[in-house]
Specification:
Layout lengths: L8 H15 L4 E8 L2 E8 L10 E2 L4 H9 L3 E4 L12 H6 L4 E9 L2 E10 L7 H34 L1 E2 L1 E2 L2 H21 L4 H17 L13 H11 L4 H8 L3 H15 L4 H10 L5
Antiparallel strand pairs: 1-2, 1-6, 2-3, 4-5, 5-6, 7-8
């Protein structure tokens, strides 16, 4: 899949920061993704200024750099006078009034891909419970990035081999790319709190749907919207766990949808379901 079709990892990071805002007493939260070996801060909740925006954190520098280098949470109380970190970013941290800072790396398959920060504007210790909450969200973000990486890898593999289960034509590969892009837009829309912006994203998703072929066969088989979503991801080679994560469902629920749609299509395998659904005009 082309990189521009992949949902922005920055949006996923911002969603985790909003979750942390509701779940923790941190008045200021921020984070970023790793680009070209360094961390670029791109997500913010509760900041007073734009001084941290697009700040590049070098590996091993400051709290976040040390957390990335050691791939473990690093917390600092009394930030300005701490002897456990370097102080390249004292001006930016001080401008936000942060006295206690926690940085948790986002590690995907052994590689640091980002970091989440929580800041307190008072000098007090960080509890283990508070640290655990941020670690849990970092793990959740790592799982989301890993799923996206796997979808990218599989699409690249399919494109290189020129097939998905069976040889497919160039137009079919384009249809798969369109399916993945509007599913990605729908996933992004589900995480947007601004209703006007959500409507704009859904309008783009609808436009992509209309690009799909209109000369679909009349079929006696009817699949629900959710069954089609599950099958669309299956057509991209996603496992049940990946589909569940992408659609915010349980694995058992995905299995139920898959079992039901296979029964409607009268097939015995996922591959047969994809082929039969395309024959009926239910998939692009």
């Amino acid at each position: 899949m082309s990189r521009h079709l992949r949902p922005s990892d920055r949006d996923a990071l911002q969603a985790e920061l909003r979750t942390l805002k509701a779940a923790t007493p941190f008045p200021v939260l921020f984070g970023g993704t790793v680009e070209h070996g360094n961390l670029t801060l791109s997500g913010f909740v509760g900041t007073r200024s734009t001084i941290l925006r697009n700040l590049v954190i070098d590996v091993r520098c400051g709290v976040g750099g040390r957390a990335m280098a050691e791939q473990r949470p690093i917390g600092v109380q009394g930030y300005a006078n701490s002897l456990s970190i370097t102080h390249e970013y004292d001006h930016q941290v001080g401008a936000e009034g942060i006295e206690t800072l926690l940085a948790v790396p986002v590690v995907v398959r052994g590689r640091t891909r980002g970091a989440l920060y929580g800041g307190l504007r008072v000098n007090q210790p960080l509890s283990d419970r508070l640290t655990d909450v941020v670690v849990e969200r970092a793990h959740e973000l790592a799982r989301e990035i890993d799923i996206r990486d796997e979808v990218d890898r599989r699409l690249a593999m399919f494109a290189a081999s020129g097939r998905v289960q069976a040889p497919i034509a160039r137009d079919d590969r384009k249809m798969d790319a369109i399916i993945e892009s509007y599913l990605a837009l729908r996933s992004i829309a589900d995480r947007i709190e601004d209703t006007d912006l959500e409507a704009e994203v859904m309008a783009v998703e609808g436009t992509l749907r209309r690009i799909l072929p209109t000369d679909r066969r009349t079929s006696s088989v009817t699949l629900s919207k959710r069954e089609i979503e599950v099958l669309e991801y299956a057509s991209l080679g996603c496992r049940n766990a990946e589909i569940a994560a992408r659609l915010s469902l349980s694995v058992d629920t995905v299995k139920t949808y898959m079992r039901n749609l296979m029964g409607k299509l009268d097939v015995a395998t996922r591959q047969e379901a994809v082929v039969e659904a395309r024959r009926h005009g239910l998939l692009g």
